[in-house]
Amino acid sequence: MKKQHQVILSLGSNLGNRLENIVRCIDNLHKEIGTIIRVSKLYETPSWGFESEKFYNCAVIINTHKSAHQVLEECLLLEEALGRVREEAEGYHARIIDIDVITFDEEIIASEKLQVPHPEMQNRLFVLLPMQDLNLDWRHPILQKYLHELLILSEDKSNCKVIQNLEIPIARLKLDHFNYIAIEGNIGAGKTTLTNKLAEDFNAKSVLERFADNPFLPKFYEDQNRYAFPLEMSFLADRYQQISDDLAQFDLFKDFIVADYHIFKSLIFAKVTLAEDEFRLYKTMFDIIYKEMPKPDLYIYLYQSTERLLENIKERGRNYEQEIPAEYLEKINNGYLDYIKSQTNLNILIIDVTNRDFQNNQEDYVYILNEIQNKISG
Q1: H helices then E strands: how many in the chain?
Q2: Candidates 201, 251, 260, 287; catalytic one
Q3: For residue 142, what is the DSSP state?
Q4: Staple partner for 104: which of 68, 129, 154, 334, CB 3.0–4.6 Å?
């Protein structure tokens, strides 16, 4: 899965309730376009290039999988939804809300609709000062200057006044209640996608299963009876080693860790794939290992229907997975649900993501964040 793009947007308003306009814009950007991970202070700045009321300005960073042009189109739609009416006459005008795409990673984009970095950013204090608040290690890819250098060189001497701090939407999600979250689910449920998004958005350490390195996996899907036991034993050994090694690097009392599996999945899969005598031997080994493993503060199970799982598996295109039967996925799901029912001391959250695309649809991702928030609050 590719990392998310990091986009800087500049927001401005000088009509109506300027503070309310900015706050509404931030909330809607976060709910509809991308995860806002940082927000600058709010500034009051003089209008630029025309006589009008002073502006309120700020800058935000969003994480998103969307393209630069898709972000632009959705920002224009959001401006309209928030009440902006574009004047037909050329030049600058007062506006209820203005959203400008300033940067997109460190890319240079020059199209008819979009120029990135914004061609005037280095000449506008109302852009540079809020960007400085975002604590970026960003260098202008054309001018080859860092932000502090652009500020020194800028000829704009406008009086930009700090008004107040602004809330970061994800700060409402008190994930600092947890140090270790495990994301679980069936094959194709989106465990790794969600783990990566949470790690990127909340500056967490990620622990990702190394399934691609297992030499028995392709063989297992060709001949399950022959390769089930070595597959499950190798997975168990690798998961034990990985969790031991990776978690040893982190402080479970200070670091925030998100993993795309919990070691108990080993027993769930083994119970489905192994013969009865093999499973008894396997469980003996597993019980010894399980006692040593740290338990997650929150265990999230992503439920998806079997039909949707099969669609996801087909779409991601791993050759050795294409012949997985629906019955196998249903057995795995039942194994997870039986495990969940048996756990009385594990903090469990089940989220039905059957009809949700939380990688490409921000509203679906925010739904998951809200479900986690409700779990914390409840």
Answers
A1: 12, 13
A2: 260
A3: T
A4: 68
